[in-house]
Specification:
With about 160 residues, the chain is of the alpha+beta class. The protein is built from four helices and eight strands. Helix 1 packs across helix 2.
Length: about 160
Amino acid sequence: MTTKIETKYVVDASQKKMIVEREFAAPVSRVWAAWTQKDLLDKWWAPKPWKAETKSMNFKDGGHWHYSMVGPDGTRMWARIDYSNIEIEKRFDARDTFCDENGNENNDLPKMSWKNLFQSSATGTKVVIEILYKSEADMKTIIEMGFKEGFAMAHDNLDELLAM
């Protein structure tokens, strides 16, 4: 019997940031691919029963991923991630915003800046993400939207994908 790997969160309200850590039982190259290729992202990014659908993606410095999370009733939540500071199989930074189907930012919802690190570990790959928010209130809004639970569920999806 395998032990379920948990997603760990550390919330630092005074610094307006959240640290997310997760181990994956696969080499860095496979985990990196799952985070940077649209066909793989679409298979795990959304918490079930939702699914992710890429509209466009160009993973490069200055590129972006424009996608929607689609609910079982067909509801779509659009988002856009803009990439920078990419070091292949090591790290990338991203600006994460909610948007409409054309990629126009939704200024009513918080924006986030992500620093994603990929490190080889004894069991595979450790991913460490530092998410910075403009304000404590923005961070609280994202948490109240179910971010922690949803992201942990998506990580479970990634575990299943990596096990194939």
